[in-house]
Design the sequence.
């Protein structure tokens, strides 16, 4: 008896079975040399493109040399700090006029100004608020003055009437934005996005070192 074409190798049924299988995630590779990368790997900030580049250890060390690539790439540090004594209150948060509960600020060296971004269904959205309003709020924490341009961010969250204030690597913020975008549903993100947000800040609590008078 002849086997129907749809059941033959490469036939319609076989193609449908392959389509139902979730695609294996593509391994990440170094932007510069193409080497495969582990899940935990270095990032460099491309200051001319306002983007992040994945890097292997060797390439990351190469670009840390003074003058490499004309200073275009900067290594993203792994510094996590929290300011438990900041003075940002509910009125300050209202002044920011951010439509969600989370915002991060980074200092763009090329533009020579602070940029405010927040998660949205389309990715990172830039706030158009007058920068003077940001400065008034950010002046309430020492972390704002400690930011390394292009590679660190001041991350604020307002939840349950409390504002938390962290200094984090900029790639951590973009990871959060990506997770929020992946799980976002409806107007305010929905339960899955909120759970991702809570989980992110739970992990952050275990990583961040409290700011003290002696913190460099």
Sequence:
């Amino acid at each position: 008896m002849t086997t129907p074409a749809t059941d033959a190798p490469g036939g319609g049924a076989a193609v449908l079975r392959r389509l139902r299988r979730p695609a294996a995630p593509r391994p990440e590779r170094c932007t510069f040399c193409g080497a495969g990368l582990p899940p935990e790997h270095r990032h460099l900030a491309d200051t001319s493109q306002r983007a992040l580049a994945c890097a292997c250890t060797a390439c990351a060390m190469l670009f840390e040399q003074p003058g490499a690539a004309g200073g275009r790439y900067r290594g993203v540090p792994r510094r996590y700090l929290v300011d438990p004594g900041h003075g940002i209150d509910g009125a300050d948060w209202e002044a920011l006029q951010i439509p969600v509960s989370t915002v991060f600020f980074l200092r763009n060296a090329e533009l020579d100004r602070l940029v405010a971004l927040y998660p949205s269904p389309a990715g990172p959205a830039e706030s158009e608020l007058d920068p003077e309003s940001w400065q008034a709020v950010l002046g309430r924490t020492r972390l704002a003055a400690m930011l390394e341009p292009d590679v660190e961010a001041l991350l604020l969250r307002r939840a349950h009437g409390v504002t938390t204030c962290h200094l984090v690597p900029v790639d951590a913020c973009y990871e959060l934005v990506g997770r929020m975008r992946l799980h976002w549903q409806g107007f305010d993100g929905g339960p899955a996005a909120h759970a991702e947000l809570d989980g992110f800040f739970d992990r952050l609590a275990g990583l961040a070192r409290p700011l003290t008078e002696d913190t460099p």
The radius of gyration is 22 Å. Confidence is low (pLDDT under 50) at residues 1-12, 14-19.
